[in-house]
Design goal:
The protein has helices at residues 11-21, 35-45, 65-74, 77-80, 84-88, 91-96, 98-108, 125-128, 148-155, 173-176, 178-192, and strands at 27-32, 50-56, 135-140, 161-166. The radius of gyration is 17 Å and the shape is globular. The longest helix has 15 residues, at 178-192. The chain has a single domain (11-192), classed as Alpha/Beta hydrolase fold, catalytic domain (Rossmann fold, 3-Layer(aba) Sandwich). It is of the alpha/beta class and 193 residues long. The protein contains 11 helices and 4 strands; from the N terminus they run αβαβααααααβαβαα.
Length: 193
């Protein structure tokens, strides 16, 4: 736990430090959910380090006023107040795999709070037009926090961007539908690399 006066740091700088430590010159970055905030920040700051970028089920951390207005209409206070498993897991998954839901809840220690890291950039929609990295924006059909229409706002601004959607999955699409999620990501990487 950080002390009250300690800074949790900047996500994209931590990604850079990890890549440098692992001696990765150019690599594929796959960033989901809140990790997508830092992933998009990294991709915009250091595109020369990336061979490809996948932004999955994420609001992207944009501070653009037009995007923020849409986000406020879509992810309402009522949605934000739902229990974590209802916000992040789709109804089909909750129906089909109650044991998987319980495993997910245990893994995430529902109810715990975590300190969030900051972004280096104030990301706007026009900034996305400068991203010069093969990109896949991967949405999920039942995602309450980053629904397909919201993620298309991001994808439509990024040059050389593919858009895919994981059928009935919620925000944790990689957990709920790993085979479909992996197939879409791997197909994109085969085409892009």
């Amino acid at each position: 736990m950080l002390s009250a006066d300690a800074s949790p740091g900047v996500m994209s700088e931590d990604v850079m430090a990890l890549a440098d430590t692992l001696e990765l010159q150019r690599f594929v970055l796959i960033a989901a959910a809140y990790g997508g905030f830092g992933g998009l920040d990294f991709a915009l700051r250091f595109p020369q380090r990336l061979r490809a970028f996948v932004l999955a089920t994420s609001q992207g951390g944009l501070s653009d006023p037009d995007y923020a207005a849409v986000l406020a209409r879509v992810v309402t206070p009522e949605i934000r107040e739902l229990p974590l498993h209802l916000r992040e897991l789709g109804p089909s998954y909750r129906t089909e795999d109650p044991d998987g839901v319980e495993d997910w809840r245990k893994l995430l220690h529902e109810g715990e709070t975590h300190t969030r890291q900051s972004l280096a950039l104030q990301i706007t929609l026009p900034m996305l037009e400068t991203l010069n990295v093969p990109t896949l924006v991967l949405a999920a059909g039942a995602d309450l926090l980053a629904p397909p229409a919201l993620m298309r706002l991001i994808a439509n601004r990024i040059p050389d961007c593919a858009f895919e959607c994981v059928g009935e999955a919620g925000h944790s699409a990689h957990w709920e539908r790993p085979a479909e999620w992996n197939r879409l990501v791997l197909n994109f990487l085969q085409r892009s690399l």
